[in-house]
Specification:
- By secondary structure, this protein is mainly α.
- Among the domains are: 46 residues, no CATH class; 67 residues, AhpD-like (Up-down Bundle), CATH 1.20.1290.
- 54% of the residues lie in helices and 0% in strands.
- The longest helix has 17 residues.
- The radius of gyration is 22 Å and the shape is globular.
Length: 179
Amino acid sequence: MPTDPPADATTPSPDPRPSPSSDPRTSPSPSPSPDPRYDAGMAVRRAVLGDAHVDRAVANTTEFTADFQDFITRYAWGSVWTRDGLDRRTRSCVTLAVLTALHCTDELAMHVRAALRNGLTAQEINEVLLHTAVYAGVPAANSAYAVAQRVLAENPEPDGRIPDTVTRSSADPGTVEPG
């Protein structure tokens, strides 16, 4: 009976993951049925972040990032953001606070926009950042205020005006002027 040759460092092992053509979301005839968390996650992701953002993320997905995009859609958006325990406004408040504490400014900008889509006002975002400053520190909050100020200035109120709570610093547009 023939045996397989021993595997060594020069022999690549087969990839145990399904190929993209066998992915139930992209194959012409899905078998097995797709995970409902993915579809629910994509719906919430689009509602919170907007179609344009999600379309860009999907279009920019590469073989390298495909697993991560699937992960965040299925689990962050499809398993957590879809839960009944907190409404989307509250989830946005929590997300802003955590991203501020972790100094995740790129993600923070995206989630300030999401918070606005979820119905938070500029004043409520201000309150979240101020409250976070007490627990995460003033330097983290100062960076977050600069990001939020920029995003809020780019996203005027529905009547076209920039919220009164957003002021620009003539000295440095990335720094919040002390009150």
